[in-house]
Amino acid sequence: MISVLLVAGVLVAMFVAYNIGGSTTGPAFGPAVGADAISKPVAAALMGVFFFLGAWTLGRNVVTKLGSELVVDTGIFTLESSIAVLFFIGVALLVGNVYGVPASTSMTAVGAIAGLGLAGGVLDLAVMGEIVVWWVVSPIVGFWVSLIIGRYFYARLNGLVAMDRSTGPLFDVDRSGLVPVPRVHRTTNRRELAGTFTVVAIGCLMAFSSGTSNIANAVAPLVGSGELAMNPAIVFGGVAVTVGAFTIARRTLETMGSDITELPLTAAIVVASVSSTLVVFLSALGIPASFVIIATMSIVGLGWGRATRPMTAPEVVTGDGGSPVTVDALAADEEGETLPPIGAEDAEDIPSPGALFNPVTTARVVMMQNVVPAIATAGAYLTFRFVPIFGF
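Structure (tokenized):
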């Protein structure tokens, strides 16, 4: 017979997943909704489908890592301790929301479980060290990849992706038959269709990457306790994320209040592509990744790369004039013809370093990204160590 405590644990896990759906749908599909490419209900449906696909495929790797490998004795995951861990995850994320910072659910979940493991003396330091190393390396990789794209490829990419919206809607809906059939509106051009497809596809990739990493944050403690099997846990989490996408995500879709969706469309696509690809890669390794931190450093790298496009290497380093030898001079072909200067394609629209990222905001985000998991870790450790009912 199913215990009341197990039902409570499932409900708490679904509440965490519900908030994940609400907070991640906006960054994933905000650009598509803002460009009138898809409606909010369609965005919510796509979020639910692709999140579930990510959770069902690669997400179980991260669930296993958090639920059974981060601690050397899974017996520490009792129902009571699992519910408490989920509680600390929720409280810590609430602190981030109060300060207007999209906190990393992955880092917060790892912190809460690590606090439990420390209190019980069963934390696997090797696994924890592996996770922390990837947390350091992945934002650096995202920064440099985005910087290279911003410096050398952004202008041409912008020429391919940038959308000039026509006056009419993208599609007309033919309701003459039993099933409504969407048809391309007469004013819609091929470039507009290509841009629409691109931005929606990127949103689907972000939703998939969210599923690969974030499902573990909601269900790993219960799966680790052995009280809930992997497959039903993923189903419960996927349902809760979808409900969150259809309800509380409407606000994030309206305001697009995240660092990613406030970027120009092309920049948003670059940041989302780089960040999502890294998250999917880490999830395949079983590493719970922080999409927000990777995306933040990707924004910084992209902004820095674009801002330094017309500059020589010495000017980038010293901040003032340098030698006339530029990267373009090294790009001359064998016949002596040179390519256009790096910044020629968009020299009149080169942003300042602060145009694509605000240093103060970036510092606040990075600081809170460390404070929130620390709260979860410290709260979990102190509770499990000194509250008698847990018996550690």
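The CA atoms of residues 209 and 280 lie 5 Å apart. Residues 4-390 form one domain.
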